[in-house]
Specification:
Blueprint: H1 4-29, H2 38-64, H3 70-158, E1 162-167, E2 172-175, H4 177-183, H5 195-198, E3 200-201, H6 210-215, E4 221-228, E5 234-245, E6 251-260, H7 262-276, H8 286-303, E7 307-314, H9 317-324, H10 326-343, E8 349-356, E9 359-365, H11 375-390, E10 399-405, H12 414-436
Antiparallel strand pairs: 1-2, 1-6, 3-4, 4-5, 5-6, 7-9, 7-10, 8-9
Helix pairs in contact: 1-2, 2-3, 9-10, 10-11
Amino acid sequence: MITTPLFSSILVLIGAFFMLGAIVTSIRATPDVPAPYKNKWFILVTLMGLFLVGYLAVILVELLSLPLPVDVIAGSVFLGGACFVLLIISLSKSIIHSLRQREHLLEEARDQLEERVCERTQNLEQALAKLEKETKEHRQLSTNFEALNVELLQILNSSADGIRIIDKDFIVRRVNKTFVKMMGFDQEELINFKCHDRVHGNDCHTSNCPLTITMNGNKSFEVEKLVKGKDGKEMTCLVTAAPYFDANGSLIGIIEGFRDISDRKIMEERLREISITDEMTGLLNRRGFLDVAMRQLELAKRLDKSVFLLYTDIDDFKQINDTLGHAVGDEAIKETAELLCATFREADIIGIGRLGGDEFSVMMFSEFETTSKHPVISRLEAKLRERNKTTSQPYQLSISTGLIQYDHANPQSIDELLTLADKKMYDCKQQRKKNQT
């Protein structure tokens, strides 16, 4: 049976082991102790050390029967226990106070957080409402822009003129359907290519390029130019060029409008020809002859070239008309025109014109310095003789001529030359009548 001192020693020993475990655990936990509690923590660890020493002393006294009063040791341990409990309570109180402060701070922080959350939520709701409004406006603007873009595209494609938009780097950015059809390309063959790589004009790579002119500060302008499409065929276009600006007003290229006026130019040329051409003979009419003669006379002055003017009419033309009819008279006029064209070399002719009725005039270059026995007169008379021998017409064709040379030393107008040549022709006609009598 275990005696009481031995049992007491075993219990004290077990208590010592627990105390040792507590000390080790406390030492390991020391680095994690907050700074305000460090000092009290060290005192607690120290008291636990003293307890351990007291436990060991009790065990030694009991086991070795040392002459030490156990009551003193026990009293010391109890005193230390009371101090330990007091320190624990003090530490607990501090911790509880600290926890209450932190709880209070936490509550305040929570309240502030709730206020901030409410504030942030309200701000977020306002921001979301604003964003939704802006998104709706943006969506509406996008819809309007798409509708406007479709509308502008329809307007662009409905234009009768070909339209091309070019940026500052000569890159084609947009064309309408009329331009595509006019030039014979697919749209993909034009967009994002250099303008002169596809459609060639007579002003490409020159100072007359519409883009170059516009980029140099010029405003809208209009010009006629020849343009080649995909098939290489030239067409005359009336090109309208205008500056192309971005939303900020910066010049970023040009807008060109192309109107094919090839048919109009052909018609204009035809009308011009009609206005200066004699319908019956195909020669120049009086207006056309005077216009050509005046311009070539000025050129002859500058080049110092020898120029002759021949004036002629049909002898007894009135008799042909009166006896054989106007249709035969018209044939006589046509034959005379053909004889004149056949007599003169094309390289020498400046112009042949029917001045009216049966009167004709020829302006020509010639190397001869005198009008007497000019070879052109001889050729004309030879042509007449040959015609009269072989003709089946009911009349003999005879013409009188007057030939005048332009005098560079004494310049004369075309009207003055015609008057002198007419006088010469009249003299020729009178001399012929005398010879016939």
